[in-house]
Design goal:
globular, 8 strands, two-stranded antiparallel ribbon, Aminopeptidase, 148 residues, six-stranded mixed β-sheet, alpha+beta, 4 helices
Length: 148
């Protein structure tokens, strides 16, 4: 969807997967522009580099995984999930250690995650992460915890 403004510019709003697919060039251009801006300030850092680790069962079905984004010597673990029947068996800890190891291979020295109060804060703390911030009422009635 395009929203026309008073100038000769238009603003494209993408809400669906199809709209985002049609605007992939826009995402790439914004990422590259941001990268140039960051490079001019702090040197060459990876921007947009991603690490993905998946757990598969004998039928090759994905039953868990983690996704991390690399930037400036840090990995931000944006997604981590394990099928409920496999939880509390050490698989989550192993998954976390694997993605952290891969991040170290890519030059990371630090890691951070965020999670909702009804999710995995105790899991991350058990694995050495410490709470550094909390966003209250995100979503309403809950909190979002930030750990490193």
């Amino acid at each position: 969807m395009r929203i026309l403004s008073e100038s000769d510019l238009s603003f494209q709003v993408c809400r669906t997967a199809e709209e985002m697919k049609s605007a992939e060039d826009g995402f790439r251009i914004v990422l590259e522009g941001l990268g140039r801006n960051i490079f001019s300030k702090i040197s060459n850092v990876e921007l947009g580099k991603e690490v993905q680790v998946f757990i598969r069962n004998r039928k090759n079905k994905v039953v868990g995984g983690a996704v991390g984004h690399i930037f400036g010597g840090w990995i931000y673990i944006s997604l981590i999930w394990i099928e409920e029947s496999l939880r509390s068996k050490g698989h989550g800890t192993r998954l976390l250690k694997i993605i952290e190891t891969e991040a170290v291979k890519l030059g990371c020295k630090h890691a951070h995650v965020d999670t909702c109060s009804f999710e995995a804060s105790p899991f991350y703390m058990k694995n050495g992460y410490t709470l550094f911030a909390t966003l209250e009422n995100y979503p309403e009635g809950h909190s979002k915890h930030f750990l490193k």
